[in-house]
Amino acid sequence: MSSEEGLSSTITDWIFINSWWLLLPFIMLLVVAAFIVAFVLLLYMISPLISPKPLKLNGAHVVVTGGSSGIGKSIAIECYRQGAFITLVARDEAKLLQAKKEVEKFAINDKQVVLCISVDVASDYSQVESVIKQAQEKLGPVDMLVNCAGTSISGKFEEVEVDRFKKLMEVNYLGSVYPTRAVITTMKERRMGRIMFVSSQAGQIGLFGYTAYSPSKFALRGLAESLQMEIKPYNIYVTVAYPPDTDTPGLAEENKTKPLETKLISETSGVCQPEQVAKIIVRDAVQGNFNSSVGPDGYMLSALTCGMSPVTSITEGLQQIVTMGLFRTIALFYLGSFDSIVRRCMIQREQLKAADKRE
Ligand SMILES: NC(=O)C1=CN([C@@H]2O[C@H](COP(=O)(O)OP(=O)(O)OC[C@H]3O[C@@H](n4cnc5c(N)ncnc54)[C@H](OP(=O)(O)O)[C@@H]3O)[C@@H](O)[C@H]2O)C=CC1
Ligand SMILES: CCCCCCCCCCCCCCCC(=O)[C@@H](N)CO
């Protein structure tokens, strides 16, 4: 070792031993940087969890498609009871007028109005746009749009008439796209609003008999997620509701041709009353929750199928994280029992057929 090298290493030692504090600024800088990174990460995690400000229904203009019957009518009543102005949208004028009378019984002040509009929400966009414009001229800009017009049909895949697949996509999916498209620009300008899509538990799981219906309800979820990402900075919140079987004229109609398998499987989550479903849906829409479910099965299904859907509260996010594995375990038992229902029904049918032949 040369004497020069010896000298430089002695100097470095000296700095480390006696002047470590010279490094203090660097250490502090590192600590501050670490804090900043942690803070930014925390902000990223927390920001989607910040709950929106609840919408005031008193004096608000609520448009309910499918508002002349069943769940839609109950939603209209629930909003009216909280002071909203209502536009009911459906095709049949007589049913609309009847529903208007029923809703009006729940007025809380004498300024409230129920407007009826007869239009097919699924056939022609320009028509839907023009009636929404008329409604806005009469009752002011739409604060909340409830897309509840819809219909269902159940049957085995090969027994469902081919044009029904198209029909259900038109009514249940496009029939929600069109009214939403007609209100969104004004909502964005006003930087406020709520959009509700009424899907179904059959929009979270595919079931025997719902090959035409389920996809039209699943589609709403894709629409809702994409739209929510676009309009959240404009303070507009989207809610997707997933009701179980609900006691309505729509369900009674569907039950006339429902396969036994579909009946037995759907019984799992029971039958609800439309008033009960409407209360939950309206509460969730007012709060701006992305997800709205009914009952314990509905809760489990929603947590299990949350995927990449937006979260609207810290508790919701935490519950999803904690329950996911447990609910999947429970789901496997449900799936097993559904498979066994389908197998048993098939065997029963074949035995009946064989007996018929023998006679
Ligand atoms: N009842 C249930 O078990 C469940 C229902 N749902 C969903 O909830 C929604 C409401 O169901 P429910 O209350 O049972 O249905 P109903 O059949 O009782 O009512 C349907 C409403 O939608 C209107 N409508 C139907 N088609 C159109 C159309 N093309 N244009 C405008 N309005 C239309 C009907 O009026 P009109 O015929 O005069 O146009 C009526 O007001 C549906 O989307 C359904 O899929 C979800 C889960 C469970
Ligand atoms: C942890 C996992 C829990 C799993 C629970 C599964 C429960 C399945 C029940 C599905 C019922 C579907 C009702 C569809 C109603 C409907 O949309 C039509 N009636 C419309 O008319």
TrEMBL record:
<feature type="transmembrane region" description="Helical">
    <location>
        <begin position="20"/>
        <end position="46"/>
    </location>
</feature>
<keyword id="KW-0472">Membrane</keyword>
<comment type="function">
    <text>Catalyzes the reduction of 3'-oxosphinganine (3-ketodihydrosphingosine/KDS) to sphinganine (dihydrosphingosine/DHS), the second step of de novo sphingolipid biosynthesis.</text>
</comment>
<keyword id="KW-1133">Transmembrane helix</keyword>
<dbReference type="InterPro" id="IPR002347">
    <property type="entry name" value="SDR_fam"/>
</dbReference>
<keyword id="KW-0443">Lipid metabolism</keyword>
<dbReference type="InterPro" id="IPR045022">
    <property type="entry name" value="KDSR-like"/>
</dbReference>
<comment type="similarity">
    <text>Belongs to the short-chain dehydrogenases/reductases (SDR) family.</text>
</comment>
<keyword id="KW-0521">NADP</keyword>
<comment type="pathway">
    <text>Sphingolipid metabolism.</text>
</comment>
<keyword id="KW-0560">Oxidoreductase</keyword>
<dbReference type="GO" id="GO:0006666">
    <property type="term" value="P:3-keto-sphinganine metabolic process"/>
</dbReference>
<keyword id="KW-0256">Endoplasmic reticulum</keyword>
<dbReference type="GO" id="GO:0047560">
    <property type="term" value="F:3-dehydrosphinganine reductase activity"/>
</dbReference>
<protein>
    <recommendedName>
        <fullName>3-dehydrosphinganine reductase</fullName>
        <ecNumber>1.1.1.102</ecNumber>
    </recommendedName>
</protein>
<dbReference type="InterPro" id="IPR036291">
    <property type="entry name" value="NAD(P)-bd_dom_sf"/>
</dbReference>
<comment type="pathway">
    <text>Lipid metabolism; sphingolipid metabolism.</text>
</comment>
<dbReference type="GO" id="GO:0030148">
    <property type="term" value="P:sphingolipid biosynthetic process"/>
</dbReference>
<keyword id="KW-0812">Transmembrane</keyword>
<keyword id="KW-0746">Sphingolipid metabolism</keyword>
<dbReference type="GO" id="GO:0005789">
    <property type="term" value="C:endoplasmic reticulum membrane"/>
</dbReference>
<dbReference type="Pfam" id="PF00106">
    <property type="entry name" value="adh_short"/>
</dbReference>
